[in-house]
Amino acid sequence: MGIGNTLLLSQCTAYLLALVLSFFMAVPMGQNQRNFDGKCLLYARGTWSVNSTSDVGWKMDITYWGSQSVCNYSIYMGIVTMIVAFVQVVRTSYFLYKGLDSSFLDAFVSFVVNFILTTMLFTSALIVTMGLSAWCQEVTQHISMCEEAQYSSWLNWKGIDTSSFYIQLGMVQFGSWCGWVCWLIATMLTGLRVYNYHQREDILRSLQREKDRMLGTNTEQRPLLI
């Protein structure tokens, strides 16, 4: 297998992994919002008060919920990366099956798209990580560990299901960071293909110049016929 096919196979693998990981971003976040009655848990704030009916002896009243756009952004990135990764898997698989190679323009466009998605996904991963950390700081004021809070009744808000919130957001965090790594690798591989195309074009131009120079030299050295 040539270098070009090896790069293409590596890209296809990265896209396939990114496709799988995109489900870890969109699905758990959507389920978490459903459990919390459409409210965003990231960056939420609350105050604690003594309550003997609670499993932990305290109840939290939410001061304010996180911005809806924060959670929607993670869902949006999951859906977008899912679509783009699927298209790229189909495209690269077709090239591998046919034994073809993409053009310079195709590789360049893929590089630009991958770079944009990698940057946006890095932002999404940071938002989820910092948002979950901020929420866990509120929760662990009266509960020893954030993951233990999902097994207790402590939130003073009707229509809210706190079970599995830490697992759900943990899956979103895992999918975001691992997905970012996959897209970063795909971006680097695509950039390498663009560089190889550029190098190949330089070599072809150099060969053409050398050919023209040699033809010009031969013409000058050819004796004139009288």
Automatic annotation (TrEMBL):
Keywords: Membrane, Transmembrane, Transmembrane helix
Membrane topology, from the record: Multi-pass membrane protein
Keyword Phosphoprotein: no
InterPro entries on file: TMEM179, TMEM179-179B
Location of the protein in the cell: Membrane
Main location: membrane
Transmembrane segment boundaries: 7-27, 73-96, 108-135, 174-195
One Pfam family, short name: Claudin_TMEM179-179B
PANTHER family in alphabetical order: TRANSMEMBRANE PROTEIN 179
Homology family: Belongs to the TMEM179 family.
Name of the protein described by the UniProt record: TMEM179 protein
Gene: TMEM179
